[in-house]
Amino acid sequence: MKKILFVLPLLLLFSCKEEFLDRGSLTQLAEGNFWQTEKDAQLGLNGVYEVLQARVMYGGNLNGTAGIPQHDSFADNTFNNYKFEGPGNFVEARVDPATSFFNEFWTANYRGIARANNAIANIERMPKSAISDANRTALLGQARFLRGLFYMNLAIHYEDVPLILAVQSLQEAYVPKNANKEVSDQIIADLKFAGEALPATYPANQFGYATKGAALSLLARFQLYQKNYPEVVALTAQVLTLGYSLNASYDQLFTEAGEKSREVVFSVRFSQDQSDNGETFSATFTGIPKVNVQPMRNLVNEYYATDGLPITRSPLYRAATPKLNRDPRLAASIYFRDDIFLLDLNRPFTGNTATTFGQKKYIRNAPSPSGIGVGSPGGQDFYVIRYADVLLMRAEALVETNQLTEVYPLVNQVRTRVRMPKVEDVEGSNLSQAALRDIVRHERRVELAMEGLRFFDVKRWGEVEAAYKRATDDRVAAYRPVYRGRMSEVFPIPQTEIDANKNLVQNPVWK
């Protein structure tokens, strides 16, 4: 499969002074003869996309700083056993502003912002003889989509952060932080621009670039976080007209064979044969599946029986055979004891994790035809947004605006894809707003588990403390979640940035 590999040629590489506020983080690209043609502009944009592949971003990790694919460990879905990677220590309150995770995640997002700003500045000033107005607008749409995505990561996790919208000189790099409202307004402006500027599709050989659907869906996600529910309803209504659909097989979707499904709205693309490919979220060890992301028992118990009832109420559930007669998404997402997790070695999972469960979703279970081992970088794309998420975002916004009629068919689309019963057939019709809210939140959890969205959900719902309690109640050996109020819901500004920039002050939560 040919993939767009967002790798920057040597001409475009930033200098080693790329750390934000580390005296050169926002240095300009070497201009020379570059930014002269439309091809140059697209190559420059590839350098912005390339930041998404970093392991602290969407590349994930197997033994290092955690990436976004591991962010479910910031809540109650998974346990980060290799606590030095970030999430495990965060939940156990053994971090401070000097913890390296916060700096690496901050730096990667600002690296992307710096590259996006550079692309925007250069594309805007390219002469009309070099690029048509329509193509200029579309390329600017890609750059602003990416800038919006990077700032969204910062606004959700750090909240008040510096808002930088232009290429900076060294002298201009000492900037204060902006209020979250200012940053949020800019995210919305960038994504609105992208939604109007980007095409709905690209030719097959350009698969992977941001589209109109990606921009509208990401904007809907951010508006959901802002609790601007009418906007979510309006935005998702547009996405529903763009030709997306659910993949017939939930299992197949999270493999390389599912990467071009019409369910994928936006993905970060990887190729197993690329030497500097950063994808390790699908990697595992040969003796234990994905040891640093261990599904929690409270997540496993959230999956209903096949009659659509919770396991506490279903006559189909048997504790002795807990995987049988369950929502098929459970077996597609989680390894149970004695499941074969390495097909080439016929190796069974012995339950040798702290939680006794293993991650299955996204995880490779055999070497590739090219001989790359299961613990090496792979070629699986990571889905930042997929259509099932769009349907459930719309359902949530409709619940919160008390428009309940359409919630049923939206949830039913997601359920019946895996042959689970419809809402009306189990919970009934004419349900209350509160009852439908619980249904939608349940569906988000089991549909999107281990896709990096759980912290986003529980923080938005005001349920971080409840999530910590669920994790505590699982009684995982040597795991002691400690809820510290807002300190458990917002990242500190990295101490290295505070030390380097006298105009930057720490989030008061972390003082």
UniProtKB/TrEMBL annotation:
GO terms for cellular component: cell outer membrane. Keywords: Cell outer membrane, Membrane, Signal. Residues 263-510 form the RagB/SusD domain. It is found in: Cell outer membrane. Gene3D superfamilies: 1.25.40.390. The keyword Ion transport does not apply. The keyword Mitochondrion does not apply. InterPro entries: SusD-like_N, SusD_RagB_dom, TPR-like_helical_dom_sf. Transmembrane segments: none annotated. Belongs to the SusD family. This is RagB/SusD family nutrient uptake outer membrane protein. It comes from Rudanella paleaurantiibacter.
